[in-house]
């Protein structure tokens, strides 16, 4: 089955998405997500200018060979732009292969390992009371795992606290907006938040929290220790992960589980953290970590060390990524949890999908392929609009910090 055509579709139904569509001489088509939040056009160009010309005429069934061609063949390996582009091709080809087999993708990945995929939703509030109310609302919607984030007194804007209730979207300005940050205020506030949340929601729900790369290792250790009484499922990205040794220090001080990896793009970013058992959950997902093919390698390495998966699933990952991730989640043995931030109605309409949510669990659906498509006519009505993620500055002196 030959690849006859491939195109990149950039659209913005509420937020920007980059989607790759591959066509074959047998009439089968496949789609892959290529969205890299805030740097969308870099991936669109990488694909259109450098990848697509090499795809035409290749056998669409040779997924692994094409993956290796794009990875090794570029000479310049890894990095988020390259790996997102490769992921889009890989996802579209798995979609085509599963359609050719007449099977939902999870069947080609070994079949179901579980009845459904536990997802966590985002409960956000401007203060503790509002966050507690949101956690209870999510529990009432059936969620078994809930991430809680709250505004911090004295800070203008804090990661995770958005404008809408279901649709938090940080990339909200045509130039980066500036947020302020105080580690001291945050470290005082967060244990209070979880004390109140646990009091209100009890112990039958998993609680998660995203630190979003903001602490130094010793500060992260202190946070992990102070949250131990509230038995969190994980704290995420407690400190930046460029220097992976940093996690050893956190580990020495706390038994709060650690999740890392939403910005990782290959197994090489994960290797030391996993092999040294410095984390409990690996957050890499389909679109930013080389597609289904590469994510399976990461998961297999993680399985050797009892590290489980917790795929990134924010709104900047399109429904195409979500669909593919659900096929991965339901078929991988060391699954932990899947993040699920709901897309807006406009986004859902542009990307018709077979996956669904019920009682805190999601299923990928049973249509052949990964079950997500793009309505190109509708997509054309939502042209690209430049949007950046914010930057962070320390509240007391304006030093640029990690957002
Ligand atoms: C998460 C993430 C996101 C990121 C976003 C950046 O845990 O869901 O941290 O909210 O900030 O994906 O593009
Ligand atoms: Mg995160």
UniProtKB/TrEMBL annotation:
Set out the biological process GO terms recorded for this chain's protein: amino acid catabolic process; carbohydrate catabolic process
User: What reaction does this catalyse?
Assistant: D-mannonate = 2-dehydro-3-deoxy-D-gluconate + H2O
Molecular function via GO:
magnesium ion binding; mannonate dehydratase activity
Q: Indicate whether Lyase appears among the record's keywords.
A: yes
Q: Which cofactor does it need?
A: Mg(2+)
Enzyme's top EC category: lyase
Q: What is this enzyme's EC?
A: 4.2.1.8
Q: Which UniProt keywords apply?
A: Carbohydrate metabolism, Lyase, Magnesium, Metal-binding
Mandelate racemase/muconate lactonizing enzyme C-terminal domain boundaries = 128-257
Which pathway is this protein engaged in?
Carbohydrate metabolism; pentose and glucuronate interconversion
In the UniProt record, does the keyword Magnesium occur? Answer: yes
Pfam families from the xrefs? MR_MLE_C, MR_MLE_N
* Entry-linked PROSITE patterns: MR_MLE_1 (PS00908), MR_MLE_2 (PS00909)
The cross-references to NCBIfam families, in alphabetical order and at most eight, read:
ManoateDhtManD, PRK15072.1
Q: What does this protein do?
A: Catalyzes the dehydration of D-mannonate. Has no detectable activity with a panel of 70 other acid sugars (in vitro).
Protein name as annotated: mannonate dehydratase
Which species does this protein come from? Bordetella flabilis
């Amino acid at each position: 089955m030959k690849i006859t055509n491939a195109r990149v579709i950039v659209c913005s139904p509420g937020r920007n998405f980059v989607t790759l569509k591959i066509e074959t001489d047998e009439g089968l088509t496949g789609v892959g997500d290529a969205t890299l939040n805030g740097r969308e056009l870099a991936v669109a160009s990488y694909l259109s200018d450098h990848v697509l010309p090499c795809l035409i005429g290749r056998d669409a069934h040779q997924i692994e060979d094409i993956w290796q061609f794009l990875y090794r063949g570029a000479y310049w390996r890894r990095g988020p732009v390259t790996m997102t582009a490769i992921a889009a091709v890989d996802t579209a080809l798995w979609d085509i292969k599963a359609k050719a087999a007449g099977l939902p993708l999870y069947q080609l990945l070994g079949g179901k390992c579980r009845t459904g995929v536990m997802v966590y939703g985002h409960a956000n509030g401007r203060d503790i009371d509002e966050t507690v109310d949101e956690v209870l609302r999510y529990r009432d919607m059936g969620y078994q795992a809930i991430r809680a984030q709250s505004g911090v007194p004295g800070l203008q804007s804090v990661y995770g606290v958005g404008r809408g209730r279901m649709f938090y979207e940080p990339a909200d300005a045509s130039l980066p907006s500036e947020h302020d940050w105080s580690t001291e205020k945050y470290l005082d506030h967060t244990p209070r938040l979880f004390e109140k949340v646990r009091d209100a929601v009890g112990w039958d729900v998993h609680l998660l929290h995203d630190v979003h790369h903001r602490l130094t290792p010793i500060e992260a250790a202190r946070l992990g220790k102070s949250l131990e009484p509230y038995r969190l499922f994980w704290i995420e990205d407690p400190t930046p992960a460029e220097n992976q040794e940093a996690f050893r220090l956190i580990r020495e001080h706390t038994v709060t589980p650690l999740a890392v990896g939403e910005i990782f793009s290959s197994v090489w970013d994960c290797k030391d953290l996993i092999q040294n058992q410095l984390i409990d959950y690996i957050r890499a997902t389909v679109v930013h970590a080389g597609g289904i093919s590469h994510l399976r390698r990461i998961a297999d390495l993680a399985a050797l060390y009892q590290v489980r998966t917790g795929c990134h699933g924010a709104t900047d990952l399109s429904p195409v990524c979500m669909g593919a991730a659900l096929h991965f989640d339901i078929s991988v043995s060391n699954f932990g949890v899947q993040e699920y931030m709901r897309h807006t109605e406009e986004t859902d309409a542009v990307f018709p999908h077979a996956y669904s949510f019920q009682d805190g669990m999601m299923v990928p659906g049973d249509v052949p392929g990964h079950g997500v498509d793009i309505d190109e006519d509708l997509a054309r009505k939502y042209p690209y609009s430049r949007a950046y993620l914010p930057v962070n500055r320390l509240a007391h002196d304006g030093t640029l910090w990690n957002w």
